[in-house]
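ugh ok fine here u go
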Amino acid sequence: MTTVVGPERQEGSGTPAAPSGVAAAKSAGKAGRNLPAAIGVGGTLGIGLILVLVFVPLVWIGVVAVALAVATYEVSKRLREGGVLVPRIPLILGGQAMIWLGWPFGAVGVLSAAVGTVVVCMVWLLLRQGFGTAPKNYLEELSVTVLVACWLPLLASFTVLMVLQDNGAGRILVFVIGVVCSDIGGYIAGVLFGKHPMAPAISPKKSWEGLVGSLIFCIIGCLLTVTLILEANSLIGILLGVVLVVTGTLGDLIESQVKRDLRIKDMGTLLPGHGGIMDRLDSLLPSAFVAWLVFTVLL
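structure:
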C-alpha cells in the first residue's frame, strides 16, 4: 500500500539510497519506484488474476501456493542474510500444507497444518546441528520462524477458504479490488497533497493525506463491487472499505519495520518496479483474514 508524502520528504528512510542522477529521476516516480515498470507488471498480474478467477477459480489455490512459496523463500533468505537462521524447508513445505489442506478440509485443515508446521520447526531448530550440539539463538530463531509461518502462509490461507465459499471468485475479486483501490488512492493523494508524514520513524513516505485518499478510493471501490459483484448490502461495502484500509496500512507498516530492522529496501527483485513477491503481499495478507471474516459473518 502506497500513501506517499511529497518529494521533499522522501529522504532519510534508513534504507539503501536510490540511484542518483538524471536517469534515476526519469525512471523513478515520486514514490521511489520505476513507475512505468510498476504499472506494466501490476497491470499484467491484475489481468491474469481476473482471468483465473472468472474462468477457473480453483486455479487460484495454485497461484496462492506458488506466490507463498516464493515469498517465504524471499523472507527466509533476507532473514538469513541478517543473521536469523530460520528453517527454510519446513517453512516452505508447511506453508504448502496450509494452502492445500484448506481445499478438502477447510479451516480445520489450515489450522492443523499450521500447528504441525510450528511443531516441526521447533524440532528442526533443536536438532539442526545434531544431538551433541546445543542450538544457538534457539528462542530468537524459533520466535521469528513462528512469525513467518503465521504472517505468510497462515494469513494467505484465508484467500483459499474465501474462494471455496459461495461466489468465492467474486469475494476474492472484491477483496483484491478493494486493496488495489486503497493503494491507488493513497499513491495519488500522497503525491498530490502529502505534507504530513504518518509514521516517519517507520515509513517516511506515508502521509495522512495519503491515508485519506486510500479511504475514499477503497470505500468507493468496495461499495461498488460489493453491490454489483456480490449483490449484497451496500453497508457491507462501506465497512469492508474502512477495515481494508486499516489492515492494509498496518500490514505495509509492519513489513516496512521488518525491512528497516534488516536494513534492506525490498524483500526481493523478482517484480520490476515492485521488488519481490512479498513486497506486493504486505497489504494483502492481513486484509485477507479481515475480508474472509467480514464475508463469513455478514454475507
